[in-house]
């Protein structure tokens, strides 16, 4: 689903941060697992975190309904139109297919944790270790905010929070700004060079 340069820059960023900051890799919004596998592969190739765990959160039932007020009419209209580019049946994905894919990457099964369900019911129960890379790819305001509230505090200093939909959906950028303001966090929005992937670096509190 992700264009080439953006995919590569996500991976380069995860590689850079993952080499320097110990902790688990977490993706919220995995869909079929394209980025999930890239995150696993780059961490394994670096070889410096043999105990790193990978946590993947998704409903595997697609996106929840967009909220007209928070996500905007573009999001609501997109969701209503099955022929919209990138709609993919409302981003639904097959759980068994995803599980088989991530378990075929050569990582010990006990290091792979798939959390199936709505973020509102799952991310608050995260029981993994400190987080090195937190990748948010849940499109909407509530999906983004729920993950930030539950998981941002668990990101290690120097860890990255990658915000896939910052430029794509108003609800996502609003959630990031609201979260930072609500918690009076002075974190900056950083950008990669080619595809301008948006990310935050956690500073020590
Ligand atoms: C754009 S897709 C993710 C693409 C994926 N990261 C990739 O690399 O191809 C968005 C995903 O977020 C999931 N999602 C969004 N909001 C969610 C929520 N509140 N709870 C659970 N899953 C959610 C959807 O099920 C969907 O699979």
TrEMBL record:
* UniProt-listed Gene3D superfamilies: Vaccinia Virus protein VP39
Which InterPro entries does the record cross-reference, listed alphabetically?
SAM-dependent_MTases_sf, TylF_MeTrfase
Give the protein's recorded name. Macrocin O-methyltransferase
């Amino acid at each position: 689903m992700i264009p080439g340069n953006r995919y590569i820059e996500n991976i380069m960023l995860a590689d850079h941060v993952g080499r320097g900051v110990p902790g688990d890799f977490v993706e919220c919004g995995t869909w079929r697992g394209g980025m999930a596998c890239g995150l696993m592969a780059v961490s394994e190739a670096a070889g410096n975190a043999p105990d790193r765990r990978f946590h993947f959160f998704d409903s595997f039932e697609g996106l929840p309904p967009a909220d007209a007020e928070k996500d905007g009419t573009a999001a609501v209209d997109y969701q209503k139109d099955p022929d919209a580019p990138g709609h993919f049946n409302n981003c639904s994905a097959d759980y068994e297919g995803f599980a088989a894919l991530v378990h075929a990457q050569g990582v010990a099964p006990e290091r792979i944790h798939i959390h199936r369900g709505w973020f509102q019911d799952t991310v608050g129960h995260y029981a993994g270790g400190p987080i090195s890379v937190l990748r948010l790819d849940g499109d909407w305001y509530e999906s983004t905010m729920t993950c930030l509230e539950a998981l941002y505090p668990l990101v290690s200093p120097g860890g990255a929070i990658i915000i896939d939909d910052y430029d794509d959906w108003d609800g996502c950028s609003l959630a990031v700004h609201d979260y930072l303001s609500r918690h009076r966090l002075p974190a900056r929005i950083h950008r990669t060079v080619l595809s301008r992937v948006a990310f935050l670096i956690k500073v020590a509190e």
